[in-house]
Amino acid sequence: MNRVRFLHEIQRRCRQSPQNPERSMLIMARFVSPNARSAVLNELDTAFAEDGTTNPTGNDPLLQEDVSGLLRTIHRLKSDVEQGKFRISFEFEEFDCDWEDEYELRDNDGFGEKAKECLLKSIALMYRRQYETALQAFDSLFSIVFANEYRDDDISFADLFEAGLIDLELSEVSLYYAFAALWVLRGTARNKKLLDLMAISASALDLQAILKIVDEPLPDRDAFAAEWYGFCATLPEQQWRRPEKTRLLIDSVLFRGGTAALSAFAEEHGEKYPQTYRELVQIHKNAGDRAQAVDWALRGLEALDAKSSVRAEIADQLAELASETDNPDIFRIGLTEGFRSSLNLSHFLRLHQIGDDAAIGQAVQYMIEQKERNADNDADYYCIRLLSGDDAFVWEQCAADHKSLGWSNSPKGKLFPLFIALSLKTPEIPHCIRELLRENFDGTSGILRRLQEAQGVRSEDALSDQIVRVLRFHPCFSDKGEGRDYLDWCQEETRKRVKAILEGQYRSSYHKVALLIVAVAEAIRSGKNAERSTEWIKEFRARYPRHSAFHREMREVLAKAGFAKLF
Q1: Distance in angstroms (rounded) separating the CA atoms of residues 6 and 40
Q2: What is the rounded CA–CA span in Å between residue 76 and residue 71?
Q3: Which of 2, 189, 419, 462 has its CA 20 to 30 A from that of 522?
Q4: What is d(CA 563, CA 208) in angstroms, rounded to the nearest whole number?
Q5: What is the mean pLDDT of the chain?
Q6: How many Å separate Cα 297 from the centre of its chain?
Q7: 407, 379 in Cβ contact below 8 A?
Q8: How far is CA 345 from CA 23, 188, 194, 277, 401, in A?
Q9: CA–CA dist 272, 250 (Å, integer)
Q10: What is the rounded average pLDDT of the residues 329-347?
């Protein structure tokens, strides 16, 4: 799911909810990784399903509106433009000399937002592979023009992209337009012209040329299939670097000869186009042939370089297949190779499902050797090392970071709740420490966390829950006494953090520091030292007697953690 469609889906769901948390959600959504987008939308559907929202939907923006309804909407939009209901005006800059071109287009009546919504729905048709209808929608939209009262030429639909009145990249829209046209128009010469649309600028989009192509007769399907596949296969490799273009190439192969043709293509070109392996795994799985799906997943893992992001996805497919067929050996391969390809925390936690300490240790050692690949993801790197028992090394890195504010700029902020957890005397993780782990690793801070609390929505396989399961086997909690005591350091760091937040009056962080204080109190209390934990909490009441907002947060957190009323 691309970023534009994902943000559109977030926006639509938020507007359907009575709480309408649109702005906060969209801000957070910009930082969601591509692989997690579908899961986030599914979580929102669940969260909003019982809060008064009507007609909760899935990932397809056309489920609530039939395709003919979209075409009617576009027709009405075009008619409204022709009748003058939407106005595009000009704002001129004042210069000493008369420069004709120094003006800025302005959208007075919200046409850009309505056009954007229609474009997103037209693109959704592409996901559903309704190419002919999508082409009709794009044709109708791009034939919309506005009269230009200052110059002879009209303002085209493409001009609105250049002026920023439609908040989408025209090159992306052109790609989907060409994708639709390819399957409708058929024929090598015509497809060459359409393919060129994918990389051109707004000013070069020649709709009239495309409309002329539409009038040409369609060739025989089999003849076109052979011609189009041959044309795609001979294009320079750089033409197919983008995933969307690879999708076109794969579709051309399937259009020509189905699964057999794609299998032959993968054997010859799979390393260059790794998505072909992923596609074949899914095709065979959907057909119920799990043995063939597993075989293609194993071929993909063997053929692809460990740095390939697609390789991690294929490993996930393999683990899922093995889980469905109860094949522990294949399951182990899927989890191990998924981690070796991604080197991220999520895959490391899944790896623990195999229950083999030696294999996990080998995987972590491989990650350490590949550290240069992980430079942009230090937090995951240190979390994995801490969870696998190398907490002393990680603590040295964190202790060297003397910041008390702005932990989000370093791994320290994410790791700190883990050190509080390692300060417990038993592996049972109490309320506030769990909450810190949820905020840090599940991304459920702020409004999304409160929505989940209100609806009782919690994923049973959230990252923080997996971390808790792994923490229980950490050497710090073993009978051998291999762990070290981090409690004094955690207390001192918490004091610095609270001082920076409260004296700086960062009110939006008062809840977080209240969680920190009580989480440390939970660690103290786990050592059967209730009196000392009480003294720790009272220390902050004495230090900050006039911070009433902070006191409110502390009272709320203390109540949930089962402490006495100390504020």
Answers
A1: 10
A2: 9
A3: 462
A4: 73
A5: 76
A6: 24
A7: no
A8: 29, 46, 42, 25, 22
A9: 12
A10: 93
Q: Which two tokens stand for residue 9?
A: 């889906």
* Chain segment 203-248, per-residue pLDDT in tens: 444 445 444 544 555 556 676 677 667 766 665 565 555 565 677 6
Residues 7/29, Cβ–Cβ less than 8 Å: yes
Top-confidence residue, 58 or 539: 539
Question: Any idea what DSSP says for residue 215?
Answer: T
Report the share of the chain in percent with pLDDT over 70: 64
Lowest mean pLDDT among 157-171, 181-195, 236-250, 389-403: 181-195
Burial class (CB in 10 A: 0-12, 13-18, 19+), 557: buried
| pLDDT tens per residue across span 518-538 | 999 999 999 877 889 999 999
Of 22-26, 279-283, 367-371, least confident by mean pLDDT is: 22-26
Look at residue 218 in the predicted model and tell me its pLDDT. 53
Decide if 140 contacts 190 (C-beta within 8 A).
no
Sign of CA dihedral 392, 394, 397, 403: negative
Contact (Cβ atoms closer than 8 angstroms) between residue 438 and residue 464: yes
Residue 473's SS3 state is coil
Tokens coding 26: 């969209």
Residue 163 identity (one-letter amino acid): A
Rounded to whole angstroms, the Cα distance separating 159 from 153 reads 11
Q: Is the pLDDT of residue 433 over 80?
A: yes
pLDDT of residue 551: 93
Contacts of 454 (CB under 8 A, 6+ apart): 51
Residue 242 corresponds to which tokens in the numbers above?
A: 């983008």
What pLDDT shows up at residue 30? 52
Helix axes 67-82, 111-127, angle to 10 degrees: 150
Q: How many CA atoms lie within 13 A of 161 on its CB side?
A: 20
Pairwise CA distance, residues 466 & 345, whole Å: 10
Q: Other C-beta atoms within 10 Å of 151: how many?
A: 11
The first and second tokens of residue 8, run together, are 């559109």
Q: Which of 431, 404, 398 is nearest to 525 (CA)?
A: 431
Backbone angles phi, psi at 396, to 5 degrees: -60, -40
> C-alpha angle 309/314/317, rounded to 5°?
135
- Residue type for 422, please? L
Q: 3-class DSSP state for residue 514?
A: helix
Of 173-182, 278-287, 450-459, highest mean pLDDT: 278-287
Cβ-based burial of 429 (10 A; exposed 0-12, middle 13-18, buried ≥19): buried
- State the pLDDT at residue 373: 56
Please tell me the distance from the alpha carbon of residue 126 to that of residue 62, in angstroms, as a whole number. Answer: 11
The secondary structure of residue 218, as a DSSP letter, is P
On the CB side of 306, CA atoms within 13 Å amount to 12
| pLDDT score of 157 | 82
Q: Pick from 319, 533, 495: which is nearest to 405 by CA?
A: 495
Structure tokens at 554: 């502390």
* Structural contact between residues 347 and 339, judged by C-beta atoms closer than 8 angstroms: yes
Show the CA angle centred on residue 462, arms to residues 414 and 459, nearest 5°: 140
Residue 126: both structure tokens together = 């592409």
**Residues 323 and 331 sit within 8 Å (Cβ to Cβ):** yes
- Round to whole Å and give the CA distance between 401 and 493: 11
